[in-house]
Design goal:
Structural class: alpha+beta
Radius of gyration: 11 Å
Number of helices: 2
Oligomer: single chain
Strand order of the largest sheet: 1-4-3-2
Number of strands: 4
Length: 79
């Protein structure tokens, strides 16, 4: 289990992958920003989530929920 961030300001949670599979992560979001991540056997999700938390990057919920999409690809394009 790896945890980054603090979910106090989160207004929702989003699961990535199925916990029954043994590897998954739960992202806590406030608006379109990740404020915390809890990852079980998902080091790429943890590292990517930690990076996105630190940068305050806006993310796309649909992409974040899709485990076939790279965690780096979930960031919304800056306009």
């Amino acid at each position: 289990l790896q945890i980054a961030g603090v979910p106090f300001d989160a207004d929702r949670q989003l699961a990535r992958s199925d916990p029954a599979g043994g590897a998954f992560s739960v992202f806590h979001l406030s608006g379109d920003r990740i404020v915390a991540v809890e990852a079980v056997n998902a080091p790429a999700d943890f590292m990517g989530g930690r990076m996105l938390i630190g940068k305050g990057t806006a993310v796309d919920d649909a992409l974040l929920a899709d485990p076939t999409v790279s965690i780096k690809a979930v960031a919304k394009p800056q306009v």
